Amino acid sequence: MAPVTQQQSAMDDTYHLLYWPGIPGRGEHIRLVLEEAGAKYTDSAFAGGGIDEVLAFVQAKVPDDGINPQPFAPPILKHKDLVISQTPNILQYLGTRLGLVPNADNDPNSVFKVNALALTALDGLSNEPHDCHHPVATGLYYEDQKEESKRRSEDYVKNRLPKFLSHFERVLGSQWSGSGPWLSGSALSYADLVVFQCVDGVKFMFPKAMARLEREGKHAKVFALHKAVSERPRIKAYLESPRRQKYSLGIYRYYEELDNET
Amino acid sequence: MAPVTQQQSAMDDTYHLLYWPGIPGRGEHIRLVLEEAGAKYTDSAFAGGGIDEVLAFVQAKVPDDGINPQPFAPPILKHKDLVISQTPNILQYLGTRLGLVPNADNDPNSVFKVNALALTALDGLSNEPHDCHHPVATGLYYEDQKEESKRRSEDYVKNRLPKFLSHFERVLGSQWSGSGPWLSGSALSYADLVVFQCVDGVKFMFPKAMARLEREGKHAKVFALHKAVSERPRIKAYLESPRRQKYSLGIYRYYEELDNET
């Protein structure tokens, strides 16, 4: 469902995503959950003045509302009276509400199993790729840490990336996962959407290495999950829409000199 | 309560923490929650053969149990039939069960507010300090990335550390936090224990910078929280016990050459 364009009253059921414009970034994980669920939401990345609302939070200028702790950084989700931050936290909140935690009714611990997978994907396939182009300092330009970025990227592609892909391949081959394309049994979970976005981003960032890994076939289930998510009707429509932003200078960046094959 | 020494049957209510021996590390956040709650638990760090159980998970040798996805890395928590990983995930599981999410009965969203704070502390005051001595690669020795570590540590102490401390100072001064020493209103939450451990570790790692920051008084509420947690009767007894391990070559390390004051 398209983001609603009018800001709704605080008490209706619309979700409000606050995130930087111009990059998919960490906000993208949240967009995918909202889109897959067909939820009604607004997105500051496409709203006039949206960036001011994000900046007000980041610069600690948002007045104390008395009912929420202040967020440290975007993404931020507003829903009715609630204001929460931290990507895995928002994903869990939305995932439990929007039916993206399979088997939750039978097993109240399902959410902790899905959450562990989402956290692991974010650690190894989002935060670590980000640090590949910012190994010395987040606040410095890439150009000021190019040599260190090269070393870090080589290590990432050689050691870390296959380790994380192997982990998800193993989970996808487990009895808990079952025979379908999804991590958690027969139904899609929000962890599948996270792994999709992570694999998609790493493919953009390290196309040579990911093409080699795909050819080698050791992580076939992970690449099949990526494809299966991209074919979900609502996700497919979203990916083809202008709401799906291009990768640029966010988490996943393409620098030819970092794109090593080994 | 002291860890129980005998492995209990899988169906009793004992919690089983699996973590590396010899360092407090990420496992320490979980120990503090279990100790504050007076929960019955075992700790592989103190068990004969405990390291083999951790290694079996890390080396993907643990048989598929059919009901849990495999963990990527320790800390791992076993409780009855459940096996979960990821520090913030385990903390949330234990925190909700052990009464360390204040106001949870009145506001089911309380856990998401506490979780955001725990995740932010782990990001900025645990993962980022770790990367100070491993900026290029987790798999390389510190000695092979000393120059980069120096640059990263300078940036961390100058820019990142005060930014995260200021965030928690602001939350502690909010109406949501109230007048006591705790983040979330009148009662201790597991996020307080996380912030305690993070501040404690960063004090060990960057004693000069932390002494200066404490003197300057801009983050007085954060330092007061650290002190208040250390004075909780069960935490105090724990910190004085042999179960509290010394910092060594884990997340928080002391290298004189990284201990800059500015």
Automatic annotation (TrEMBL), chains A, B:
One BP term from GO: glutathione metabolic process
The chain positions of domain GST C-terminal read: 115-249
Pfam families associated with the record? GST_C_3
The entry lists its GO molecular-function terms as: glutathione transferase activity
Recorded hits in InterPro entries, A to Z, give: Glutathione-S-Trfase_C-like, Glutathione-S-Trfase_C_sf, Glutathione_S-Trfase_N, GST_C, GST_superfamily, Thioredoxin-like_sf
Sequence ranges assigned to domain GST N-terminal in this UniProt record? 14-102
Which PANTHER family does this UniProt record tie to the protein? GLUTATHIONE S-TRANSFERASE
Q: What is this protein called?
A: Glutathione S-transferase
The protein's organism comes out as Parathielavia hyrcaniae
